[in-house]
Specification:
metal-binding, 3-dehydroquinate synthase activity, Rossmann fold, 48% helix, 2 domains, 351 residues, Dehydroquinate_synthase, 15% strand, globular, 3-dehydroquinate synthase, nucleotide-binding, 3-stranded mixed beta sheet, Dehydroquinate synthase-like, alpha domain, alpha/beta
Length: 351
């Protein structure tokens, strides 16, 4: 399957990924090769990688899985370990895990010794179709997502769909939400294809999602304009995710589950403010609700979620900026939303 060429690196899939990894490490002659895993990828994915990677691994670093561990304290642990293991500027860090691990591993590599090489091997559908492209690295600040980080490109990203066999259906659907987003913002036919076909976790669809995101990022690598469309559903979705993560009385939502809610809510805002047709709006709502359970929100929940909007990274000059849709496949950025519409959007979602 054809590789996807991003800014300074390529995303390789299956056999091409195996060949690229072994060739790259052999040619670069790194002083040390470190492998970062969590307890899940150590058990389920590391044995697979050992059959793929022929080169030496000097040390395996392990962190605890989960969004709640994506913070600077984990980075401190990793920086200290790299230092104690005599890591230097000619070292390589291979990140084997989902988006939390690759985001954090990329940040650790980008800042250790002012930057060492890293390679990402995403093991979840979400990280394959989302974190694989764009070079965004970083950690959360408390429960506020991705507040600290840098944009820095890996040496390469390697996609092995067989890792998806280790996931439960909930994790797989979390990645499906991001794939649906790619259709909503850029490609109506892809949206239709994904909502009509059940086999979205196969290599062809993964490659198509990577290509859509890559096309956007290549035109706007530092998120000055067009790249913002990739945040559709994420302004409210991230606030919902943070609220549920920080509230002991709420069930924690996976990223895709939260942005699925966000995309319906922001679809309603799109209908009110940008002329998204009611037909398209209802299609978006039904497209998500046939795959994702509806989440219940009280008025107090909604008020608390809306207070978190002020921390969104797209904000500028004190304004909360939204990405909205004019039609399925056509997104617009930097839209300000009157406060009275938020509760109406939640009411539409709950209908």
């Amino acid at each position: 399957m054809e590789s996807v060429k991003s800014q300074s690196y390529e995303v390789h899939i299956n056999e091409l990924a195996k060949a690229a990894l072994n060739q790259h490490v052999a040619q670069k002659k790194y002083s040390k090769v470190f492998l970062l895993v969590d307890e899940n990828t150590k058990e389920h994915c590391l044995p697979v990688l050992k059959n793929i990677f022929d080169g030496p691994v000097d040390a395996i670093l392990e962190i605890a899985s989960g969004e709640e561990n994506k913070h600077i304290r984990t980075c401190l642990q990793l920086w200290e370990e790299l230092s104690q293991l005599d890591g230097d500027r000619k070292s390589l860090l291979i990140n084997l895990g989902g988006g939390v691990l690759t985001d954090m591993g990329g940040f650790v590599a980008s800042t250790f010794k002012r930057g060492i090489d890293f390679i990402n091997i995403p093991t979840t559908l979400l990280s394959m179709v989302d974190a694989s492209i764009g070079g965004k690295t970083g950690v959360d600040l408390g429960s506020l997502k991705n507040q600290i980080g840098v944009i820095n490109q890996p040496q390469m990203v390697l996609i092995f769909p067989e890792f998806l066999k280790t996931l439960d259906s909930r994790q797989t659907k979390s990645g499906y939400a991001e794939m649906l987003k790619h259709g909503l913002i850029q490609n109506k036919e892809y949206w239709k294809e994904l909502t009509l076909e059940g086999n979205f976790a196969e290599a062809g669809c993964i490659q198509k999602s990577i290509a859509i995101k890559n096309e956007v990022v290549m035109q706007d690598p530092t998120e000055q304009g067009l790249r913002k469309i990739l945040n559709y559903g994420h302004t409210l979705g991230h606030a919902i995710e943070s609220y549920c993560l920080d509230n002991p009385n709420r069930t924690t939502l996976l990223h895709g589950e939260a942005i699925a809610v966000g995309m319906i809510l922001e679809g309603y805002l799109s209908h009110e403010l940008r002329g998204l047709s009611k037909l398209d709006l209802d299609e978006i709502k039904m497209g998500f609700l046939q795959h994702f359970d509806r989440v219940e929100f009280t008025e107090d929940d909604i008020d608390a979620i809306l207070k978190l909007l002020k921390y969104d990274k797209k904000n500028s000059h004190g304004n909360v900026n939204f990405v909205l849709l004019q039609a399925i496949g056509e997104a617009v950025t930097d839209i300000k939303v009157p406060e009275e519409l938020f509760h109406k959007a939640f009411a539409y979602y709950s209908e």
